[in-house]
């Protein structure tokens, strides 16, 4: 847009040099020719055709001296093409220079000077704009990198906090089991022994009540310990530990995308199926790759496990497959086994 505005200013200045011409026909024709050539050069900028047009327009000065008045316009185009020497053919006007008035020559010379000034002003402005744009893009890129790095750091911190929380839950569960659980067990045994040796009918009912209370406390403690333990299971870490124990002839790919809030029962079911599936692959598969994909969706969780060994049929009566089916169906889920020449696939879907 800046170049178009500058060209309009140059055209206006060039037009001032021909207003004193004896006839309007030739100046108008030359003006239109110069505008057409300049427009074509801008459309074809950077091509050989643009250079040819500028050189051809310069040659017109030898035939139409008045065309010299509009050469500042072509000089502007030539300077943008980085080929200012393309206007040198305009020197052919010297053969008929006497056909131009001194006022026209003075205004044209001033127009040449103004054109050079405008070019350096606009080109300098465009270079500055390009530098600022490049700087803005660089800053934006660094800001994106910084934001991504901050996100990775935050995720790493969250993961560390999550692992620390799971570890602390495990420790609490272990402490309750080893200390409180053992003390309650001993108290239950002692209360049972007292009931056996007691011969006072008045103490029989209080002792029975005491044993019942201790039994309820033991049940509550056991459930709490199991809940803490189940919640402390890091599914991805446990699956990776299972994979590490697989025969070295297998390459195992794991893609696990689950939240930390997945139900403990579902985690244990997934782990059981994966362990059994890996064991079956090691025993029966003639492949060398195993793929495990675990996904958590809003309403259900999915597991797909597949190896690349050939398998034409399966025995549904196998204990391993039955155990997997029982685990999944206990949570009202669905499991399917698909044998093929390309491999054996296990697909599990469990509602939340």
Automatic annotation (TrEMBL):
<feature type="coiled-coil region">
    <location>
        <begin position="125"/>
        <end position="159"/>
    </location>
</feature>
<protein>
    <recommendedName>
        <fullName>histidine kinase</fullName>
        <ecNumber>2.7.13.3</ecNumber>
    </recommendedName>
</protein>
<feature type="domain" description="Signal transduction histidine kinase subgroup 3 dimerisation and phosphoacceptor">
    <location>
        <begin position="168"/>
        <end position="231"/>
    </location>
</feature>
<dbReference type="InterPro" id="IPR011712">
    <property type="entry name" value="Sig_transdc_His_kin_sub3_dim/P"/>
</dbReference>
<keyword id="KW-0067">ATP-binding</keyword>
<keyword id="KW-0547">Nucleotide-binding</keyword>
<feature type="transmembrane region" description="Helical">
    <location>
        <begin position="104"/>
        <end position="122"/>
    </location>
</feature>
<keyword id="KW-0808">Transferase</keyword>
<keyword id="KW-0418">Kinase</keyword>
<keyword id="KW-0812">Transmembrane</keyword>
<dbReference type="InterPro" id="IPR050482">
    <property type="entry name" value="Sensor_HK_TwoCompSys"/>
</dbReference>
<keyword id="KW-0597">Phosphoprotein</keyword>
<dbReference type="GO" id="GO:0000155">
    <property type="term" value="F:phosphorelay sensor kinase activity"/>
</dbReference>
<dbReference type="GO" id="GO:0005524">
    <property type="term" value="F:ATP binding"/>
</dbReference>
<dbReference type="Pfam" id="PF07730">
    <property type="entry name" value="HisKA_3"/>
</dbReference>
<dbReference type="GO" id="GO:0016020">
    <property type="term" value="C:membrane"/>
</dbReference>
<keyword id="KW-0472">Membrane</keyword>
<dbReference type="GO" id="GO:0046983">
    <property type="term" value="F:protein dimerization activity"/>
</dbReference>
<keyword id="KW-1133">Transmembrane helix</keyword>
<feature type="transmembrane region" description="Helical">
    <location>
        <begin position="31"/>
        <end position="52"/>
    </location>
</feature>
<keyword id="KW-0902">Two-component regulatory system</keyword>
<feature type="transmembrane region" description="Helical">
    <location>
        <begin position="59"/>
        <end position="76"/>
    </location>
</feature>
<dbReference type="InterPro" id="IPR036890">
    <property type="entry name" value="HATPase_C_sf"/>
</dbReference>
<keyword id="KW-0175">Coiled coil</keyword>
